[in-house]
Amino acid sequence: MALPIMAKATAVWLVDNTTLTFPQIADFCGLHELEVQGIADGDVAAGVKGFDPIANNQLTQDEIDRAEKDRKYRLKLKYNAAAEGEQVRRGPRYTPLSKRQDRPASILWLVKFHPELSDGQISKLVGTTKPTINAIRERTHWNIQNIQPIDPVALGLCKQSELDAAVQKANAKKAKDGEVMSDEERRKLVSTEQSLGVEPEAEPALPTAISGLETFSLTGNDDSNADEDDEEELLVDADSLFNLPDAPSADEDEK
């Protein structure tokens, strides 16, 4: 529902100059009923000058009279043909002071993971300026060494639906120009060597000394039997080692 300009000042004028109920004024001005009651009690909008909706072509006296007679009737804003199709210009998104230090991290995340987004889209998502975006994109920001990329949705700077809508819009524009990248291509991550253009080193060949290991088996063969015969020939009987010549007898000594 369209609201009148200077809604609170209009509510002050309606409270002071009509017998409309608080719900009727609150519904027309887009305020809470208790806020309208606070205006009537002087606790809210103290010092605010009333804004005449009749003189400013927002209401007619007949509309007010009809609403005063019927407490269930809801006021309707007067149709203005000159305002047809007119859109209110929106300024940059307001970012609370507690989250403004998180904007560089979210900008770096968007630049890194969504390069298809334009500076204007990033500015609307996180409420920043284009010079700041360019400084982070070109890594000339004064604190670029300490900035870590963080999802702006996780930081509460924008909604996931807003981010998805911006990405879809950017992809649609690139698709029209023939420069879109599919989701499958996004999932393909290249290695450091590929990104730097360095060819990986070839795997070293197996040494020739172990090239015959693939024919090794636990079962015996002719070569193994020959080796065993040679080993048996080299074995010496222990008795032969200690078979010393007999000592001469006593009779032989006397001779």
Automatic annotation (TrEMBL):
Top-level taxon of origin: Bacteria
InterPro entries hit by this protein: TrcR (IPR010421)
Basic and acidic residues composition bias: residue spans: 174-190
Chain residue ranges for the region called Disordered: 173-255
Biased composition (Acidic residues): 224-236
Classification via Pfam families: TrcR
Protein name: Cytoplasmic protein
